[in-house]
Design goal:
6 helices
Length: 148
Amino acid sequence: MNTQSANTQNLYEQDFYLWTQTIVQKLKEHKLNEIDLPNLIEEIESMGRSEKRELKSRLIVLLMHLIKWHYQPEKRSESWRSTITEQRICIEALLEDSPSLQPLLTEVFEDCYQKARLKAADETGIKLNFFPKESPFTLEEAIDNYLK
């Protein structure tokens, strides 16, 4: 490891924001031999995982509120409607920024529904087995405009 690369790696540990700005500048200047490659790789991988985590998290919140909306019509509120709308907007924005995440929705839908079901049972005090084991709505209904 050369001195420049070692200095950049130290910067990563001391001032992350400055490290990002330094890496960007070195990339713009094509000084590839001065880039802290191991940490750059780690950060890019982390960004991808973060996007996936956010998509799954938003889908779980959306599904939980749809479950509550569907199974507790007497308790429906503007707050629930607002949360449903917010999650849909955020999911749409994530997919606009990263269209390659679209297939992930299908892959994780069932798992996210199960987690949403657990959270809905916990939040409402309704027994888990009251909510169906299989989602009463499709992925498309959930992310489009499913409010009955």
